[in-house]
Amino acid sequence: MQHGLIAMERLGLSTDLYELTMAAAFHDAGIADRYATFDLAIRDLPPERGFLVAAGLEQALAYLRDFRFWPQALDYLERTGHFRQQFLDYLGALRFTGSVDAIPEGHVYFPPGPLLRIRAPIIEAQIIETYLLTTITYQTLIASKAARVVLAAGNSTVVDFSPRRDHGPQAGLLCARAAFIGGCVGTSNVLANDMFGIPMFGTMAHSFVMFYRDELEAFRAFSRSYPGDPTLLIDTYDTVEGARKALQLMPELAERGHRLAAVRLDSGDMLELSKQVREVLDAGGAEDTQIFASGNLDEHKIRRLLQGGAPIDGFGVGTELGTSGDAPSLNSTYKLVTCADAQGAEVPVIKLATSKVTLPGSKQIWRRRDASSCMTGDTIGLVGEELEGNPLLVPVMRDGKPLAPAPELSAIREHARAEIAALPTGVAELDDHATYPVQVSPRLQALVQELHRR
Amino acid sequence: MQHGLIAMERLGLSTDLYELTMAAAFHDAGIADRYATFDLAIRDLPPERGFLVAAGLEQALAYLRDFRFWPQALDYLERTGHFRQQFLDYLGALRFTGSVDAIPEGHVYFPPGPLLRIRAPIIEAQIIETYLLTTITYQTLIASKAARVVLAAGNSTVVDFSPRRDHGPQAGLLCARAAFIGGCVGTSNVLANDMFGIPMFGTMAHSFVMFYRDELEAFRAFSRSYPGDPTLLIDTYDTVEGARKALQLMPELAERGHRLAAVRLDSGDMLELSKQVREVLDAGGAEDTQIFASGNLDEHKIRRLLQGGAPIDGFGVGTELGTSGDAPSLNSTYKLVTCADAQGAEVPVIKLATSKVTLPGSKQIWRRRDASSCMTGDTIGLVGEELEGNPLLVPVMRDGKPLAPAPELSAIREHARAEIAALPTGVAELDDHATYPVQVSPRLQALVQELHRR
Which of A25, A195, A206, A395 has the largest CB neighbor count within 10 A? Predict the structure, then answer.
């Protein structure tokens, strides 16, 4: 296991220690089966985000469905000496039997209302916290960043080029999925194509050209072996000269029934170089050969390039996309909002200390739209209220079982695209975005005040 | 596989598509077995880093040792239609047979010299790029961030509390490992204890206290179930009042042969609250009960707290540690530096386009120290040179086999601690750090100039 791979049999151990010691305490006190409700929510938006795109639910539900402690995990827990045998026997039989309501993947989401609402016996609802948070938070982070990059790229496409800079191989895989939801056309990650069916794209590396030393020879060797229309990397020595060499290859490609799909620039003054390369390509009869750019790009650089008239058709974005460089985390929380008393009655609860006040009770978010379906505002209220708009959280799991197969990724991506197009003016701006109106219902406000008074 | 788990059988697919299409081209051209050398290096330091701590080598070597394309990966690759059967047959038999020299884990490292040097037939050396980069880059990023946080904490301890905010479950696991190397005393991540033997720590969540509603009852239930000396979270309602309630539990704990290990603060004005809580604890006879703090901490906040006299004995650091919040990526590269010509002679190569000039040739880094073992500077030179200082890269793999078992993590951690203590004055400062002197040997400079001239 030196790879840092997490085996299915150890999935239950991918958690914070306190989840297990609290579970033991609930068990020992005989209250493990009292029902509770938790909200998984994002507390606030990072400075440069006007909206978030919900992602990661499929992995979260798969985790809950398959959640269990396998014998080898129980053996390990026994060896730690932290847990009594009676509790370990109980853990061995434990499954997630609760309910989940959630905002589906691809919906836009605004803090601080619930993104997921989990209702289950307290021990189950608590023990899943860590895994659920990391799964939902990272994919939502990346889908939201990808949406910005894709917006900046306008009619040009964006490909996830991040695997080498993501926080480990699994982050690379989850990033590819979330970036696709956020609007990327695909990824360079082969595993993401295998596991999630995400379209994959690839070009060639500088090392390939350097290894051949002769650039034209390198282009020729790569193209001969490549099964389709190749994209050639032209900036290893001199970008404009590289474009000319790529042109020289066109007759050979045509003989084999192929064309030069694109050339890639990875360094230098991309605005200037892309214009020069476009001229060279057009003059050489390669008007339909695209220009693809990569190299430390983000949404701001892409916008500047396109505003400057750079004739770039596609962008490969790595580090800034896969780490959400300007905001590498979201302020996600998992908060108890109702719990059953000794008589089994579920009552709303609140955490009062300092500034981190939570919204109590089992909640829903209603979204209003105008006549042209443009979003106009959200209201966070209590389940059971009848508020204007459409409720965003829908039932996705009951009795520990997913209610439906996960939607197709391409459908989620299309939905996200439509949702982003329906944002109010200014909310999707890259800088100085408008604030989307989110309000709290009078009944929920009254409940907060009432719990404060007690 | 909806968990986003990467199965051993799919390890070879966790890569960029271009690694495979280039491999196919090398194979088709009949030059796959020509030797080449690549440097894995970090191009430069993030603004707030005076040094980096090397980490991730154990996982990198395990990957190289186990590298292969399993039948199910080959089946998938066949289905993509990208590759010829002859190449897939070749891939099925491909193993990594090369050499790796590397700076061992726990050494401090300064860009831009090689962190790893890989020499192998070009197809092998190229195809491993993506996985090696993500593995080494993320752990080095986190070990380096952890070192800063640990330095800021001085005599107080630091625990990795990041699993919920890391970029997915595997990032959480790798983070725990790297943070331990960087000086953390342990992690909240159970899986990291199981897989890597890293000490684990845990307290309790606000939800636990809220679920019981009565804080004292919650403390009692938790302590009864907890196998050792508990740490109680005292800020759910009122921190100072929470400290008093924790005190009330001491007689019961003593009866069972336990004591109150610590109280945890997770919100509010920690400087003020920690002083008040210390007074309450001392006045109540709990002089040896420690104060543990968490909640959006980073190295700067920790230093301010301790400089202000906060009596805090330990810190749990999550988001900022696990995502390296101020610098969530390192500018890592994997560059071809020598390759064999048609006669098999290995020659140094260089990439010239624009500003991204690389250092050619098979290189070594020599580190000089003064009489008291304090580091005084590094020189990047060519293998075969005799330069002042000790060479940093050592042989770790030959013929695809690790030369020794991976060192114990605790030994790596101790080594890192000693290395950081031997840094020149100012290099380890949190702000406005001094620049460590790194120079390039005259022979290497001459080689760069010679290759430029050609």
Answer: A25
Q: Domain limits at A439?
A: 8-142+327-453
Looking at the structure, tell me whether residues A92 and A17 fall in a common domain.
Answer: yes
- Alpha carbon of A240 to those of A197, A243, A272, A276, B82: distances in Å? 36, 5, 10, 7, 29
List the single best residue of A10, A13, A18 to mutate versus B (max B Cβ within 10 A): A18
Please indicate whether, in this complex, the C-beta atoms of A168 and B190 are within 8 angstroms of each other: no
pLDDT tens digits, A396-405: 999 999 999 9
Tell me the sheet residues that pair with B151. Answer: none
How does pLDDT run across B64-104, given as a tens digit for each residue?
A: 999 999 999 999 999 999 999 999 999 999 999 999 999 99
- Picking from B105, B126, B167 by the largest number of A CB atoms within 10 A of its own CB, the best residue to mutate is B167
Q: Does B167 contact A138 at a Cβ distance shorter than 8 Å?
A: yes
What CATH number should be reported for the domain holding residue B44? 3.20.140.10
- Residue A103: inside a domain, yes or no? yes
Interface predicted TM-score (ipTM) of this complex, two decimals: 0.97
The reply to whether A52 and A174 lie within a common domain is no
| Alpha-carbon torsion angle B106, B111, B112, B118, nearest 10 | 10
Residues of chain A in contact with residue B222, where contact means CB-CB under 8 angstroms, are 21-22, 25
Is A1 inside any structural domain? no
- Widest pairwise Cα distance in chain B: 82
pLDDT of residue A4: 83
Assess whether B19 and B102 both reside in one domain: yes
The residues, ordered by sequence, that sit 6+ positions from A138 with a Cβ below 8 Å of its Cβ are A56, A171, A174, A175, A178, B166, B167, B168, B171
Q: Do both B119 and B157 map to the same domain? A: no
Which pair of tokens denotes residue B1?
């596989």
Q: What CATH number is given to the structural domain containing A167? A: 3.20.20.70
